[in-house]
């Protein structure tokens, strides 16, 4: 441990649901209060705020609360803050906070991600859907061909694995089956019912090779990660979790010009920045907005060779809670809810502190990796309990 | 009957791409200095930073790099299933286009299929779709 390191000192989460009526600011407040209680900090000790992707004025359900709004609403006196989508994916906001505390710009930073897509879609009068006459920017290269959802873009990466490496739907299913089995033990998970292989195989296709269960679903929730400076830990009561390494990458934002997903550049970079090795990892919490993104992260982070991801997860025993690499133990986004990246860091901290209750992995976990992003954006955090 | 395709907003960078089909041409941005093609079109070459760039027609053939058969109707009345593909463009290494593979059953599309552009007009826009070369 080094006083110049950055630590996660507290985590918090609101209710997770669909079509919630509690206002998004108040869901964020719930998550902030839980994280402050967890860390043993008061709001007056917070001097930084970081979020992704900032308030999305054109699409409020995606991101209804901005950093400046939270600072104002909670009376935070901040010496540093940041919030924007032009960063290496969701957990890039946590990485930015880690850099800020390491450089002395702040001592305790609230990092948050609030999502409200299910509620916003159910209340269009309150959250008017975007109606644009024309498409522009990167969207113009995909939407005119009815490739409207990220599902259509990610499915093409998955199809390449099917064709090049023989990945099967039964293998891919293990991401959803594992997530849903874990979600059933997580009281806050969005979906509480386990999924069977028969249900998976017989569900309707969305965009091949993805069926319904390969996709997360719109969720209303807020998740908070408090990042603290190493020399401010005397103010913290919870077991601090050290950010042992972090890495990120951005490839071409148009998605279709990128040769590979950005995670493939991120994983090797993470291991260059630490003496830990993939075999030291006790649990992996890897982005699953779509199931294949987790497979890509497993390969990128060196848990298996590129192209071997399907065979690595086959049967599901290796990635189960009692397997050699327990994966997405809160349910992932497919089971736990579309917390949009932050859920993975939250769960890594919960598991490292052995606070997972019924879903707690066995043994004495000391090292976890949390990753967010699919497509051209990627961030990985290596988290350690010393 | 499908809904109208989303309409790109034309500007100085993208106009040649979206309207070249009026003359039956698939036009990509080309660098006169390093002779490379790049996409999306911009006012500078991403390979050598030259500003001597201009749209140039390519042959209009390519290879299916990857694809997905889309079953979800993302918009009202969208006819499904249909194929979304990423096509590697002949003569323009490193350039890919997201497009639809049309005029064949969805199950007939596979990676490495040879394809040729066919334009679908809607107002000012000529959408470059692709069909298999039999």
Q: Which features characterize this protein?
A:
heterodimer, A: 386 residues, alpha/beta, Peroxisomal Thiolase, Chain A, domain 1, 9-stranded mixed sheet, two-stranded antiparallel sheet, 12 helices, 12 strands, globular, B: 134 residues, mainly beta, 5-stranded mixed barrel, 3-stranded antiparallel sheet, 9 strands, 4% helix, 43% strand
Report the biggest beta sheet of chain B as strand number plus sense, adding barrel if it closes. 5 strands, mixed, barrel
Give me the strand/helix succession of chain B. EHEEEEEEEE
* Low-confidence parts of chain B: none
Q: In CATH terms, what is the fold-level topology of the domain at 6-125 and 218-235 in chain A?
A: Peroxisomal Thiolase, Chain A, domain 1
**Class by SSE composition of chain A:** alpha/beta
Walkthrough of the structure:
The complex is a heterodimer of chains A (386) and B (134). Chain A has 386 residues and is α/β, with parallel strands linked by helices. Chain A has helices at residues 24-39, 67-73, 92-102, 117-122, 150-165, 169-183, 197-202, 263-272, 291-300, 309-313, 332-336, 342-352, and strands spanning 6-13, 48-51, 80-83, 108-116, 134-135, 205-207, 210-211, 220-229, 241-250, 283-286, 367-372, 377-384. Chain A has a domain at 6-125 and 218-235: Peroxisomal Thiolase, Chain A, domain 1 (3-Layer(aba) Sandwich), CATH 3.40.47. Helix content of chain A is 31%, strand content 18%. With 134 residues, chain B is mainly β. Chain B starts with 6 loop residues before the first strand and ends with a strand. Chain B has one domain. The chains are: A alpha/beta (386), B mainly beta (134). The interface between A and B is large, with 37 and 38 residues. Strand 5 of chain A pairs parallel with strand 1 of chain B, so a sheet runs across the interface.
